[in-house]
Every structure is written in structure tokens, then in C-alpha cells.
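Checked the freezer inventory, then went back to the computational side. Two predictions to log before the end of the day. The first one is the construct we discussed on Monday; recording sequence and C-alpha cells without edits.
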Amino acid sequence: MQPRVSDAPANEVTLGIDFGTSNSAAALIDRDGKLQVIALDDSRPEMPTALFFASETHTVAFGSQAMQAYLSSTEGRLLRSLKSLLGSRLMDEYTVVNNQSIRFFDIVVLFFKELKRRCEIHVGHSIERAMLGRPVHFVDDNPERDALAQDTLARAAREAGFTHISFQLEPIAAAFDYEQRIATETTALVVDIGGGTSDFTVIRLNPERSRDADRSGDILATTGVHIGGTDFDRLLDLSTVMPLLGYKHIGTGGRPVPNSIFFDLSTWHLIHQTTTRKALHFARELWTDYVDQTLHARLMEVIEEHHGHRILAGVEVAKIACSVSGESAVVNLDFLSTPASASLDASITAPGMREALSQPVAQVVACALQCIEASGLASVDVMYLTGGSSALQPLVEALQAALPGTALLHGDRFGGVAAGLAYAGFLVPSDP
């Protein structure tokens, strides 16, 4: 069922923005009441939440072009997973790109400006209203930092040129998108597994109420946990690639090599910290802790040649391939030149992935069950999966095992939340 047609001026349409840890998407309801999921990155609705600052040209690339520039060894700096910094002091700290200091907050503003520009080109007019998605918890168990994260996101959108800004929880937005495709009332557990968070809502959906602005009576419970696709990437990187650089290597004195450098190298938004002067000095001095100096040489090559993002991108590709096929998938490390690197075997297997991800998967499933319990229902009709990481096979299997009698449906992994935000934004009353 299409929502009502707005009689607002064209520039008063509301853009639904799913600003994600790994990918972002946008959608709107046009003046004819039709949903437009905007192709932000060539023909794809999802746009990697990434920026690349090219050193030679002093230009900035966004989305897949940013990733391509980095992976083609263009000289410069890649930044990803900026959403993970929201609510932390790092957002107001400065980093160096192209020999200039810039706040991480201002980098987020740059991304929002580019997203807004692409959407305006698509629709042919300016857009001033935005309905922003937010996780149930930006920061677990810290209401002050959670409020700061939302405020920071609103400030970034405002500085990018949006003048009217609203928020909706991402799993509720996904539910509104799903509601457009049902014919009768349904109780649903919406499972939104993103790059940085896993969010849940139990909600009553009914196409007859899809045009109601106030749906608070239908929202029975929401829960969330700060675990998502980037955490899965980190754990798989630590279990498959980082041992080849010395992680868990028993060094001199029978002690493992200090592991902080490996955790930073395996975390999208912390990789840049491994190339600071202090971190480089620390890494170089680690040679005294290594029995196998080849491992240390490989670690230094990865840091000095800025291969951290390249490795994590390879882990992400192998994770997806293994999840889809159930077969072993190799993490490409051909770009390493350290002696003996040519014969490296870094593979992700289905059993290995289940083992490496068992703890976070269990936490995600527990949070889903808590949402059903908090709703007061004994069961739900449908479990609706959305979000970029919702197709991860170990997670799907665990959810099915935990809720064996519940129908499982997969939604639009990348565009569903943005579409739901567009529907929610369409029903927000215009200012008098």
C-alpha cells in the first residue's frame, strides 16, 4: 500500500538516510507517493562509508571509488567506519590527511555533503529535510555518550546543509519497509545486523495503519547490542591473518608478542593509529620479542606500506564467499613481498568461521531473544532480517535454532532501512 501523496513543495521531501558503519543508503517518497531508493554508487543503492584523500591530486574520493583508489595503491589515506567514532572523544580529535590536520567530525560532514549532493542530482532539486536512522544504542550502557552520538550526527547533517532533521530507530524503519509488502496484521521480530550494531524490534505491522504518523502503540520492544559486521571482520582477521604477522607468536622469554598492535590493525576505525610516529616506534621495537624475525618483517611491511585496510577488505570478501558457498575461501595476501609471503595460507573455512564468531553470534541471538521477552509475547509470526551482515550463515543458523517455529524472511540488506526511513519521514508533519 502506497502512503498518502504529499502536497508539500518538491524541496520539502524528506530524505531517509541510513548512515552505516560499513555502507550508507538513502531513499525518499516522491511527490507521487512512490518510493525512490537512490542509486548512490553508480547503479548500486549502497555506498561504502569510505573516503580516500589522494596525496598527489589533493582530491577526495567517496564510496567504492575511495576503496578502488586505496586498493590500486594510489598514494593517500583511506578512512572507513567513521560511525564507530560517534559518542567518543575521537570525533573531535584531529588527524592528518595530505599534510593537513582535520577533525574526524569534519570528515563525517564531508561524507554527508557528498551523499546529499548525489541525492540532489538524482531528484533534480535541493533537499533540506532528513530522517536519519540510528541504532538502538550507539554506545552500550552509557546514555550520556549515546545522546552525544545522536547530537553529533545531527550536527554533521546540519553542517552538510540539512535544515530539518529527525531520527528513527533503524530496526523500526526496517519494519516500516517490510509493512509495505504484507496484507494482514503480523507480529514481527525485525533483526537489523549492520556493520557496527545489531538491533531488534518486536512490532505489530498492519497495512491499514501504515499511514499513521504515531505507531508507538505497535512497537512492543526494542533492544540492541554493539556487535556487527566489522566485529566479525576483526575476529576473522585475528584468527586467520594476524598470526602470520606475529599475533599469539610465542617470543623470547616464552611470552606471546604484545597484542595491542594486532587489535588495532584488525579494527577498521583504528587502523590509522598504527601509522603514527609513536605506534611505528613501538612496532619496530617489537623485534626483540620475536623468535621468528620473518613474522616481524611482515608486520612492519603491513604497517609501513599501509596494508591494514587492504587485509581487512580481503577478510571481508573471504567471509562473504565462505558464508555464501560454505566452502573454504582464501584471503588474498599476494601484495605482500616479505620473504616466504608467497606461500602464505590464510583461509576462512565454515567450521573456522563458526568457531571464531561463536561468542558474538551468541550475544546477538541472546539480544534477539531478550527483545521477544521484553515484548510480552510468547512468540512472533515472522523474523525479518535486514542489514549488510544479516546473511552471515552462522548467524542465520543460530537464529533459526533459537526460534525454530518462526518464519524467516530476508529483506533488502542495504536499502531496506533507508526505505523505511523515507516512509517514516514522509509522515512527519511539515513545519507551520
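The second is the one RB wanted added to the comparison set:
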Amino acid sequence: MPLPDYCAIDFGTSNSAMAIPMADGLRLVELESGFQTMPTAVFYDAEDETRSYGRAAIAAYVDGCEGRLMRSIKSILGSDLMEQTTEIGNGIGIPYLDVVIGYLRHLKKVAEAHHGGALRRAVIGRPVWFVDGDADRDAQAQDTLERAAFAAGYAEVAFQYEPIAAALDYESTISTEQIVLVADIGGGTSDFSLVRVGPARRAAIERHDDILANHGIHVAGTDFDQSVNIAAIMPSLGYGSEGAKGRRVPGTVYFDLATWHLINTVYAHNRVIELREMASMYADPVCYQRLMTVVTKRLGHHLAALAEQAKIDVALNGGTVIDLGAVASGLLAKFSDARQAKALDHKVSRIVHAAQETLRLAGLDAGRVNATYFTGGSTGLGFLTERIAALFPSALRVAGDRFSSVATGLGIYATRRFGR
């Protein structure tokens, strides 16, 4: 008997995962050798016009292949960029929509190789808001993702909120009815849902009556990386320094270099000319030269990766030393837990406020919440989860699988929706 033809896709800002039905039940796909998650990254080789995905894409970029690395492609859904074309080198342009289509098509191809048959129906996870507070652009983002999924080869597509999917994953582990706050904090969004869960409710396909509140904001891991980059790395390139006339040097270039989807805009010919004309604004020529080294050698994505790793290292070890030898021989930047907490405080406070707003929207007292369920890569930051958990002192604190809870829950929903 052939296997069912549906799948579940957790299309993430930083990483993606898939679940498919197999003979022994629902299984996460090994998207890369030894890994059930794959970086949401595409590299376009400008020399032979080939594409690579995930870790291979990042490796191609690090190895210095001529071309364009695209990351955080989910972040541009709902933006004007989706209707534009990006240059990958040698005068070759690729529509941004094609980037999303190509990535989804690659996921489908890998999953079908494991599944052994065609996958024609898909449940795709989506954040509570693709675009904060803008219903029209949010609907546009989902429509664009649906269009990309059809173009990738799916005949039927359904969507489910990512935190609701995580709630379904949590529900599969409990034996009593509960109200759970799901905190899904990934690379691009921080999403919260208050959901009524329990064994008696598992058979239902639609759970609208059990969803007490949804809320989310477009602040998460990649925003943390940007803040760490600005605080830890960019000062070595002159950010925040005084210019020749006692005024601070312009900061726009540093924020663009610290933002994944804007890094390549700094390399544009007219932008480089503009930066060359700014030399007289810098009182410290060494910092200016480091900035121009980053721009001319196109080291922006390398620095962004260093910032992401520094964030993780500080969370684990309380401090780190960032090797900026690619910018200047022997250049190091120290970064401490205290500096990271200061750099991230404003954004963390916004996320904590979003959790509070979810509770307000549900009309509940914090004491009614039985459990907090944390998932998403950014919940590895202990100071963030501690602040959220403190809002619900009587709730059981549960750590889900940071990288697979949503995909597993989407698979559960796909089975209930398509598996009958």
C-alpha cells in the first residue's frame, strides 16, 4: 500500500524542518546527512549558475565561491522585496520569489527521496504575524508563500500557526487537561499562544474553540544577532566613534552590515563610492580602513555569522572573544554576558511584553496557566525564558525540542487534516 502523499513543513527564518508519514508512523526528515533541520539558506554560484542549499550553501560562501548567499528569506515575505530581483553576480538577476520557490522545491525533493513517493499536499507553519500589526501585508505574505508552494509542486496547501503546532506536540505528552502558554521564539518572530489542551481534545481537527489567544511580534534571534553585531563587532570598524569634527560617524552602513538581508546592499557600486567619499569624516583612519576592508572583501555575512556564534557562546559561557582576523590580522573583540544583556535588553523586553499581551487578550489571570512550553532556537537563551516564565510563577515550565517541536506538531495536524 502506498504511503499517504502529505507532509508538514516548518519553513523557518534560520532553519527549516519537515515531517512525513512513513510505514512506522510520522517521522522527521533527515534533510542533510545527520541533521533533521537545515539552515534556510541558498547560495547562487555566479560562475556556473548552480544553487546549493543549507549547510552546503553556507560552506560555498565561506569557501569564497563567487556568488550570492541568501539567508533569512522568510523575513522578506510581505515586503516589497518579494516583487523585486536581486543580483547574484556577473549581471545575473534572480527574483526574490524564485529564491523561496527553489528552497521549497529542494525540501520537497529531499523529503520525497525519503518517502519513496510524490508529496502532493502540505501543511506549512506560519508565524502569528508575518508583518507586525499589518493585516493586509500579513495576508499578502501568506498568499506569496502559498503561491511559492504551488510553484514548488504541491497541489494542496494548508497553513497552521507555529505556536499552535507546538501546542499539539506538547498535548501528545500529557494526560490531563491544561491551559498552556506556548512560547515559540525562533529566528524571525516571537509567537505566543494560550491553548486549552488535553487527551480528550486530540481527535479534533479544528481547535478554534481551544485557542484562547494568539499574539506575536517580528523580533527574535536574527534581531539579537544584529544587536550583538552592533555592540560587539561594529565598534572595531568605527561604529559610535567620533569623526574629524567631533561628530559621530554615520551609522547607517553599520546597521545594514549587521542585517542579513541588507548586507549585499552595502556592496553596490554607488554605495561603495559613497563610502569612499566619507574617509574625511573619520578621526581614526584605522577604523575606517577596517570598514572598507569589510566592504571591499565582502565580509559582512562572515561577521554576521561571528555575531550569531558570539551570542550563543556568551549564553553558554558568560563571555567570549571574537576573532576578527579576517578584517585585520590579530584583531580580537571581547564580549561579556553583561554587555550582551545590555545590548539585548530592549528587544527582550518587547518579547516579554508580547507574552503579557497574549495573557491580556485571553482575559486570564496568570494563575490559570498550568504550563509554559518553550520552543524555537532562541529559547536557548536562559535569561529570556527566565523573564517569560517569571510571569507565570505557578505554571510548570517545559522545554520542548527547540528545533523540531513545531515540525512535529505540524505533522500531527497534517495527519488529522489529510490522513483520513
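For RB: Residues 222-338 form one domain. The CA atoms of residues 213 and 349 lie 20 Å apart. Let me know if you want it refolded.
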